[in-house]
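User: Hi! I'm working on a homework problem where we have to compare a predicted structure to a textbook description. Could you give me the structure for the chain below?
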Amino acid sequence: MNSSLSDSPSTPNKLTTQTKEAVLITGASSGIGLALALQYVEKGCHVFACGRNEQKLNSIKGATPLVFDINDKDQIRQAALQLSTSLEQNDLSLTMVILNAGSCEYINNPVHFDGALFERVIQTNVVSMGYCLEHFLPLVGANGRVGLMSSSATYLPFPKAEAYGASKAAVNYLASSLRIDLKAYGIGVSVICPGFVKTPLTDKNDFAMPMQISADKAASEIIYGMNKGQSEIHFPKRFTYLLKCIACLPKAFVSRMLTPNADKA
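Assistant: Happy to help. Predicted structure tokens:
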């Protein structure tokens, strides 16, 4: 993790790419994933844009669509076979894999805990990532890098975020452990922890989202961090550092500060 606030690029960082380098992005039909796909195409990379919506993926000019549901392990396996064939036929080297796809649902009543909701979120944000790693990691070349989408919500325990926060905390640990084991293979691992980013997913939120940034800005930060080999890519820096500082305070104080209607208790 880089500690300098000035490290955040104001414009997309130019990558030193070869025409035979390939990038795979899940959740590329909208939001951060779409912005990533467009920016990587602009930089001259061969982009494999993954998602369920074939029409939206086909609209990404210059990208190769891979249509599959991340919650269907058989579809992931078939997509990996297609990817392997395309890499070989086009003499491409898969240098970047960004597992961006995910979901967010909130536990609205903690007493009547929604176990089915909890399962859905863990399945989409964690288990499906495991199957993507199973099938895509063997195709990543030496000196490649894998980016796992987490969240700055892992820095603090937020209300109603039991399912979402737990899933992203699992992604953090997965990235940390995988980074150690993949070092011998010359493959780096970045965990990506955004703050609030304007996407179709966050548009559903009914609460304040301070320091929210655009999907384009988020994509620029991710590309910069992946290119620099950062272990943790977090942004916007002023927001994420604020959360990190609060997390260092006594737990009782943090809990009271984050508890809804704490002053009325």
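For your comparison, note the following. The chain is about 40% helix and 15% strand. The first helix runs from residue 31 to 42. Good luck with the assignment!
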